[in-house]
Amino acid sequence: MHNPGIRDRLTIQRQIRIGRLFLDIAVAEPRLVRHRTGLIARPTCNQDTSVPPGDVTDAPACPAIDRPAGMHQGPERQTAAVLLIPRHLTCLVYSISLNKLLNRANVSEPAIGAHLSCSWRGFERAARGNGQSRIPRRTIMYSLRTLAFASAVAASALFSTADAHAEAKTITLCWAAWDPANALVELSKDFTAKTGTSVKFELVPWPNFADRMLNELNSKGQLCDLMIGDSQWIGGSAENGHYVKLNDFFDKEGIKMSDFLPATVEGYATWPKGTENYWALPAMGDAVGWTYRKDWFARPAIQAEFKAKYGRDLAPPKTLTELKQTAEFFQGREIDGKKIYGASIYTERGSEGITMGVTNALYPFGFQYQDPAKPYAMEGFVNSPEAVAGLEFYKSLFKCCTPPGASNSYMQEGLDAFKSGQVAMQMNFFAFFPGLYKDPNVGGDKIGFFVNPGEKTVGSQLGGQGISVVSYSQNRNEALAYIKWFADPEIQKRWWALGGYSCHKAVLGDPNFPNTAPFAADFLTAMGQVRDFWQEPSYAQLLQAMQRRVHDYVVADQGTAKQALDLLIQDWTKVFKEDDKI
Asked: What pTM, to 2 d.p., does this model score?
């Protein structure tokens, strides 16, 4: 391309002056101008029913037209709406704007793969219809060429902008800032390569994740096209219209919930519970598990001392009682000249930490949220003797066997304690285990994994999330395309390989799956015994109440376990009454 010379500009200006004489004709008779372009691979020539036959030169029957050299060669763009610009605006705006466009775009007439076909007879009829004298055909055609050139320049700028906009099409996925999100960033490059749609990630640290994203949803913000939200949000997000219901989309695209692990469908996608109403695709399977210092457990002197004291081999604990014994054994012990402690557990109060921790003691002891036969009837279940025993156990584990100052610990604090060699065992989500296994200081042969131990029964706190389309998104089609792409079994296999936790049976049901990672078998076991916190629309109020009551008892030494659970029932009863649930 080149800049038009001075003579070219003078010629153009003279032609524009002539062409402007007929702009009112174009406005009066918009059907006289037809815009046909070779810049788009799928023109809408014969689909334009607004132009009756005979008024303009007939267009071809929409053959595929190759893009000129240098044009974007990516996936087809749905730009038919751009082609249907009103004909009079095409001539009017493009002609008047020519001088400005020439200053913005270094283009010349031969470089433009577009032309404007106008009917000179139609212009002449319109002119005479407006009371004007007969205009020589030569003058009309001369001006029409001017309009064609002006329109071509503008079309070049227009379609360059449209094509650039198409190339820059971006959707935003909102999630927490942690290792699995990094894996998804890498995986999503495949989606961009296949569709041309870029994926931007809005990642928020876990302590701030719920507040930030729930505020975004409640304010009907348009930041997020896709949301990987916590499982407990599903009820409120469904009832308040934050998420798009996906049943029809799943049916249309052949996405079957039966292809995913049942616990993840119920936990991440379904509301109301027990129905087949889906608001998310299971995305990130997760549960609370444990890591331990395998190298310390394997030392002969430590093994001999442990067996002499407890009468059993030092190994990953099978019960919570064994867990506490092991933690007590390591508490305050000196290893390699450094004082170490028994275990890191969740005690954080500000967000959800202590609730996500204490439930791993409550569930195995027999705690239940409600009467299975009578929803929201909590008396004798939340505060049952089994529940009281579970809460007392958790406090005893905190008091006996955690590092000093561990009164407000959650995921990151646990990771720090384990990586720094402070603790023999760590409670944390399976999501962090791939990264820990790769850690140069405590990973590899030094680390081991085990599922949350049982006691009277088994139970692990469910983690993980589903991926939902936010109903306020301006890019719903692209967001749904991402869901379809992510549901593909081959993509799910890559998701697991990169460090994400697939929920798809094509991955988890593979006979070789337990051998794919040192924590894979324990993950399968954990996902078979998971339970979750309330997923009600008033989840936030319910969670705040439990955070307060449990933290006050376990960490702040206020009251008894029974009193804490009695007060919790009062708090929850008030919430459910306000929601007209009881």
From this structure: 0.72
What's the pLDDT at 53?
36
Domain that holds residue 281: 170-286+464-531
Q: Which of 230, 301, 293, 284 is nearest to 499 (CA)?
A: 284
Which pLDDT does position 207 carry in this prediction? 85
- Cα–Cα distances (Å) from 277 to 230, 260, 274, 491, in that order, read 17, 15, 9, 24
Give the end of a domain, one of 114, 139, 167.
167
Which of 167, 191, 215 finishes a domain? Answer: 167
Show the tokens assigned to 190.
């495949």
Taking the alpha carbons at both ends of the chain, their separation in whole angstroms is: 74
For residue 21, CA distances in Å to 27, 89, 324, 426 come to: 12, 15, 93, 82
Domain count, the chain: 3
Please state, as a whole number, how many other Cβ atoms lie within 10 Å of the Cβ of residue 202. Answer: 17
Q: Is 54 domain-assigned?
A: yes
Query: For the range 399-405, what are the long-range contacts, defined as Cβ-Cβ under 8 Å and sequence gap of 24 or more?
Result: 400/324, 400/327, 400/328, 400/331, 400/342, 401/324, 401/327, 401/328, 401/330, 401/331, 401/341, 401/342, 401/343, 402/341, 402/342, 402/343, 402/344, 402/345, 402/347, 403/341, 403/344
Q: How many CB atoms lie within 10 A of CB 509?
A: 11
Both tokens of 124, joined, read 């002449």
DSSP annotation of 35: E
Mean pLDDT of the chain: 81
Mean pLDDT of 304-327: 98
Tens-place pLDDT, residues 192-231:
999 999 999 999 998 899 999 999 999 999 999 999 999 9
pLDDT tens digits, residue range 433-481? 999 999 999 999 999 999 999 999 999 999 999 999 999 999 999 999 9
